[in-house]
C-alpha cells in the first residue's frame, strides 16, 4: 500500500505528480493547510508537521527529495530515476534537489503574501528580494536548458517533475515568460497527463486563489 498525505498546490504535489508518472497504484489523503498538520495524528507521519508524507512498505517517508529517490529506486523500470552508476546520476540528483532551492523562496513568498494575516506584518523588501532570488533560480534552469528539451540529455525524468513542480509554485510570484527555454520546457512538461492529474480538482482546494501575486513597492 502506498498512501500520500497531500495538500493541493503544496510541495506534496511534486510527489503526487511523480506517482502519476510512475503509473502505480496509490491512495491520497488530503489535509487542510492549517494547524491540523501539527496534530498528534499528523506528527506521527511527519514529525516536522509538513507535507508530503508518504506511507510505503510499512513505514512513513518525508522530505520530497528523499521520497523521489526512494520511489525511483523502488520502481526503476519506469525510467524516472537515474540509478548509481548511470552517467547522469549526479546531474539527476542535483536537479531533483535543486527543486528545494527554488521552493524555499516560494515558501517565504507564500508566507508574505498569503499566511501573514495583517498588512503590518508584511515586508515589501522581503517580497521583492525573494521574488528576485526565485528569478535567479530561473536563470540556472534557463542555462541548463540550452540545447536540451529536458534537464537531462537522456530525456524526461523525476528531475523535471521536481523542478517543474517548484516552478509551478514559483510562477505565482515570479513570471517565467522572460525565460524562453524555461517557458517552452514548462509548457512541454505540464502538458503531460501526470501533471494535469496532480492539479487541484476544484477552486475550493486551491491554496493560491490568484494566478499571480505582485511584490509591493518598497
Ligand atoms: N523540505 C521539505 C519541505 C516541506 C514543507 O515545508 N512543506 C510545506 C508545504 S509546501 C508545509 O507542509 N508547510 C506547513 C507548515 O509550514 O506549517 C520537503 O521538501 O518535503
From TrEMBL:
One Pfam match, given by its short name, reads GST_C_2
User: Do you know which Gene3D superfamilies this protein is assigned to?
Assistant: 1.20.1050.10, Glutaredoxin
Taking every annotated instance into account, which residue ranges of this chain make up the domain GST N-terminal? 1-79
Record domain GST C-terminal: where: 85-211
UniProt feature coiled coil, ranges: none
What is this protein's record name? Answer: Glutathione S-transferase
Record organism: [Roseibacterium] beibuensis
Amino acid at each position: 500500500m502506498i498512501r500520500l498525505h497531500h495538500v493541493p498546490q503544496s510541495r506534496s504535489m511534486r510527489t503526487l505528480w511523480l506517482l502519476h508518472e510512475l503509473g502505480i497504484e496509490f491512495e491520497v489523503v488530503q489535509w487542510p493547510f492549517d494547524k491540523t498538520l501539527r496534530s498528534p495524528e499528523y506528527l506521527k507521519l511527519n514529525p516536522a508537521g509538513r507535507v508530503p508524507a508518504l506511507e510505503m512498505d510499512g513505514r512513513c517517508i518525508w522530505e520530497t527529495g528523499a521520497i523521489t529517490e526512494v520511489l525511483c529506486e523502488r520502481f526503476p523500470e519506469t525510467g524516472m530515476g537515474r540509478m548509481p552508476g548511470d552517467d547522469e546520476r549526479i546531474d539527476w540528483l542535483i536537479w531533483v534537489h535543486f527543486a528545494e532551492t527554488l521552493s524555499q523562496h516560494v515558501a517565504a513568498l507564500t508566507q508574505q503574501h498569503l499566511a501573514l494575516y495583517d498588512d503590518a506584518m508584511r515586508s515589501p523588501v522581503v517580497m521583492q528580494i525573494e521574488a528576485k532570488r526565485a528569478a535567479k533560480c530561473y536563470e540556472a534552469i534557463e542555462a541548463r536548458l540550452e540545447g536540451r528539451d529536458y534537464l537531462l540529455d537522456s530525456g524526461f525524468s523525476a528531475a523535471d517533475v521536481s523542478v517543474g513542480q517548484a516552478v509551478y509554485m514559483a510562477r505565482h510570484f515570479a513570471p517565467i515568460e522572460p525565460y524562453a527555454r524555461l517557458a517552452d520546457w514548462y509548457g512541454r512538461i505540464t502538458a503531460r497527463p501526470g501533471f494535469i492529474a496532480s492539479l487541484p480538482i476544484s477552486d475550493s482546494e486551491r491554496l493560491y486563489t490568484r494566478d499571480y501575486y505582485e511584490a509591493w513597492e518598497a
